Amino acid sequence: MAKDFYGELQLGILGGGQLGRMLIQEAINYNVNVHILDPDKNAPCRKLCNRFECGSLSDFETVYNFGKDLDMITIEIEKVNVDALEKLEDEGVVVYPQSRIIRLIQDKGMQKQFFKQNDIPTAAFQLISNKENLYETAIPLPYMQKLRKDGYDGKGVKKINSTAEIEQAFEEPSLVEELVDFEKEIAVIVARNDKGDVSTFPLVEMEFNPDANLVEFLISPSTLPFEIQTQADEIAKKIAEDLQIVGLLAVEMFLTKEGEILVNELAPRPHNSGHHTIEGNMTSQFAQHLRAIFNLPLGATTARTNAVMINLLGEPRYEGLAKYEGVEDVLAVEGVFVHLYGKKYTKPFRKMGHVCIINDDRELAIKNARWVQETLKVKA
Amino acid sequence: MAKDFYGELQLGILGGGQLGRMLIQEAINYNVNVHILDPDKNAPCRKLCNRFECGSLSDFETVYNFGKDLDMITIEIEKVNVDALEKLEDEGVVVYPQSRIIRLIQDKGMQKQFFKQNDIPTAAFQLISNKENLYETAIPLPYMQKLRKDGYDGKGVKKINSTAEIEQAFEEPSLVEELVDFEKEIAVIVARNDKGDVSTFPLVEMEFNPDANLVEFLISPSTLPFEIQTQADEIAKKIAEDLQIVGLLAVEMFLTKEGEILVNELAPRPHNSGHHTIEGNMTSQFAQHLRAIFNLPLGATTARTNAVMINLLGEPRYEGLAKYEGVEDVLAVEGVFVHLYGKKYTKPFRKMGHVCIINDDRELAIKNARWVQETLKVKA
């Protein structure tokens, strides 16, 4: 569809954070008119779009009115009013990813049932309505309790170690999930356009910050055995096809100590596990998302070199106007790319930016990344 | 200086065309607040900045008022009111490139005298006040007449073949220049920051569209002999140092059939001959310009692969609302990056975008670029 739209296409993005910001950086190349809806009047995208509207993403009227004169809507966050998106779809606005997929993914319980119904390997689970159900669950202790809705970036997730701890469990409808003793967290980003073309980015490996439960360190491409890479790739493609999604889908997986792959969760949009693609791969995840939703040919995803991505998180104990330390130092090193997200205020573990470190020498890329991590700080 | 400014720096750009647009794409990574002044209310940057002001770049009051509350000003076009910039500099606004350099480069006559005074190789020339002087010039026919001021993109340049043609020559103060029988046009982009660090991008080779006198085809890196590359590189560095410029400087040169390098002209800003650096080099020219004016360490300029850049010019005979043909076709080829400039209207030879074609196989990059050139068209 995009062919006739260059310069005229009115694209709405629900959410105006860093993902929207990086999507805009790429959308500029396609002459797209971008409209942003975000509840934060200081959102990172506020000054970079044709129209910025400050409003709730969960409110039916707000989302519907924002979208009704647009050609196309996409998201950079799943927590949006899906009823409004459905109505917009009915009225002819193109919504990618489709509203039914956002609805499915908003609910971790429905996500898990989808995995089960489609033979997608995932950790054993049970859905519960309230805390009381935990006393009867068949999932052995310790296990994870995850709120079915509104959890993100490690929020809404609790590890329950003993019956005594059930007291402190979430009261709301949840997913109880077997604790996976994983070797590594891995991810594949897959894209699908409306023609049905499907393309995956090379597998990446991640390390998490145990305090913040956020991706802290990502390496691309993975050097795991070929069979693991193929299997992860095939799982991601199968999910994209089972869902018939149009757009990008990040598939986060566990690699268990036994070499088994279990799908953890999905994000139907550009994702933190794909930021390295800007410098590291032939096509960036943001370009790929646009190609997919505009039904253009998908771009080559080949890794151009080794890339390590680190999130630049607000330092613990600092809150207020953001100040950046060490930017000059890290920019002096070859292959270091700093992306700041335009957030005025920092707080502990807030995602303030990311850094991509590339090098043809993989060990050097990792070494430089560790050093950047120690050197670059966001304080207040 | 930039260190303390992230998120707070107010950067003005004189001109809101494609160069400003690509500068903004990069400035987003540094949390810079961008203010744009451009006479065209439909300028490519209009919706991508903190503040867009529609006004004349040549008017003293307009430029002065635009700049007086900013921290820093840079340019994406030389034709700006330099008196206003000088006053702003006096009042403490940082202007990079410095106003004296813009003044020098605005006048092709002063530029040539600067080359002469600094032993920079350039074609023989004479400055004339009016057409009559042409009858007495010592420069042998045929020669080039170039207006001292306001010429750009091939405008303000005439080839005079015979005494009879002097009739049709420009009346205004001009530069008469010996016709250079060149083998190739080549260019080096050099950057210098306020600490005095100087860094050059690898030499590139260009082909011009003879009808439009615009760069049409550029190859990076050059495969010319090492001595030529070194010599071109040294000339560019010397000019940056002689000028003590802060920012980017594009140095366009002729390589004569005798293997001599002659400097043609300078542009103190990101330049058409550096667009390939976005995908082709470790640091893009836009990132490098920002690093230079913010007095940050300059980035590595290494070529990551072979890159061919072609300008996407409005097709002859078409004028009006731009329509793009062949975008889907070219995006289906690996290593093809389309940059559209957000211009609503096309006219013959108007720069509507550019395409960068990368490939580790140089011949394939060139072949793909030729094919893109035949396939991608801007019509109305």
In short:
By secondary structure, chain A is of the alpha+beta class. Helix content of chain A is 25%, strand content 30%. Chain A folds into 3 domains: 2-95, Rossmann fold (3-Layer(aba) Sandwich); 124-178, Dna Ligase, domain 1 (2-Layer Sandwich), CATH 3.30.1490; 182-379, ATP-grasp fold, B domain (D-amino Acid Aminotransferase, Chain A, domain 1, 2-Layer Sandwich).
What this model shows, in words?
Two copies of one chain form a homodimer. By secondary structure, chain A is α+β, with helices and mostly antiparallel strands. The first copy, chain A, folds into three domains: 2-95, 3-Layer(aba) Sandwich (Rossmann fold); 124-178, ATP-grasp fold, A domain (Dna Ligase, domain 1, 2-Layer Sandwich), CATH 3.30.1490; 182-379, 2-Layer Sandwich (D-amino Acid Aminotransferase, Chain A, domain 1), CATH 3.30.470. Helix content of chain A is 25%, strand content 30%. Chain A has ten helices and 22 strands. In chain A, strands 10, 11, 12, 13, 14, 15, 16, 19 and 21 form a nine-stranded antiparallel sheet that branches. In chain A, β10 (182-192) and β11 (198-200) form a beta hairpin. In chain A, α1 (18-27) packs across α8 (285-293) and α3 runs antiparallel to α4 (99-106). The radius of gyration of chain A is 20 Å and the shape is globular. The N and C termini of chain A lie far apart (46 Å). The model of chain A has no long low-confidence stretch (mean pLDDT 94). At the A-B interface, α1, α9 and β19 of A face α1, α9 and β19 of B.
